[in-house]
Amino acid sequence: DTGVSQDPRHKITKRGQNVTFRCDPISEHNRLYWYRQTLGQGPEFLTYFQNEAQLEKSRLLSDRFSAERPKGSFSTLEIQRTEQGDSAMYLCASSLAGVRIEKLFFGSGTQLSVL
Amino acid sequence: AQSVTQLDSQVPVFEEAPVELRCNYSSSVSVYLFWYVQYPNQGLQLLLKYLSGSTLVESINGFEAEFNKSQTSFHLRKPSVHISDTAEYFCAVKVYNAGNMLTFGGGTRLMVKP
What we know:
The complex is a heterodimer of chains A (115) and B (114). With 115 residues, chain A is an all-beta fold.
């Protein structure tokens, strides 16, 4: 069990650029979540996948955001035309469905700074 | 919609003193309740959870939380803290039988001083 890994750890970009983050979940986990955390706030749910299907999306996820999990393993989160308000820590978590209450395992996050 | 309020953004405390981190939630339906901990430079980790049954739940490192339905609270306590407990603590709720979204509070930074 190597844990949930996220890449990159830090990303600095200019406003208007596109960015893509990657998340590798724990290998046997079939659920994968994306959360966003701004300074001084708790994580906010963005979206989640069960295998390759995207099952829930938050209203926070504007049209500029897209997430994929093409083979039900790793996931990518892309932000197009970044804005300064997108600056945040983007967290990925994975879990195993089918247990009574699933336990989420979080990665260390990708810190995005939009200049 | 549900919401979670953590009343204290920071709690400074001396080592071996007791501590309580407060959490109140708002929901019109039944919820599951969680406490997550985030140590410096690490991802969030589940500390403990309340699903049903006994309203007092315990973690392996001495923390406990009590579900109080009438006060819609789930405060986290430890009778004697250690320097290694310094971390950010997040309370979270999940609505029973309604998706898999966790709603988090804003977090409380516990700072244990020697």
